[in-house]
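User: structure tokens for this one?
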Amino acid sequence: MRAARLGPVATTIAALVAVFLIMPLIAVIPVSFTPARYLSLPSGELSLRHYRALIENPAWLRGALLSIRIGLLSSAIATMLALFFSLGIWMARPRFAGLLMGIAVLPMVAPPVVSALTLYFFLITLSKINGVVAYDTWLGVALAHAVMIAPFAVVLITVALSQVDRRIDLAARGAGAGLFTRIFRIILPNIRFSVLTAAFLSFVLSWDEIGVTLFITSVKAVTLPRLIWMGLRDNIDPAIAAVSVVLIVIVVAVILGKTAVQILRGRRRSDG
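Assistant:
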């Protein structure tokens, strides 16, 4: 059976939509080369001063490293919690599974301001008990991010488990396999890609989180998105455009690298 091909009209519409979506990203590139001290398009002269500012100003590197640290920890916590919750729902099949699922995804559907205020008061309360996991600490931010991104991991892993044939678990249990053996040798190998996808999505969501971060940080835990927001609010620093271009280049490089790996694997399979 031949694959259906798009007609010229559909191809043109798809190309126009793609250009429309990419244009804001492309517009950032010339702005990053402006010699001015404010966001503007360069008028004839190009400058790398804002890229040098990223290297010379240690605040940008500290913000990026802090965002990576928070993203790794929060994504690990969120993925583990989502995995345990989803496995419990799938294996135990409790009567109130729908209610439990609704509670688990509540941070995803609640207004962001409500979630941010709730986490703010929660971390303020923790600040009275300890100074490690508290307001304006990186561990407190990681905990808050984990709460916000865990529902997305729950959805991904739950959907993956719904595609697993329950009979393989029943067969393993009938053969005398214990709980941990069934989980780590039977179930997880069948959903490992979805678990990795949930972890990656959780990291991206934590990296990009700004709404909750503004409520639960002040001057100590300054992530990269918060630093960008401060630059836009205070002085419209063109270095923000340079940061955006660097992030765009990294994303494009990752996508191209993944595509190249897939092409090489396809060629090896065809040759084999």
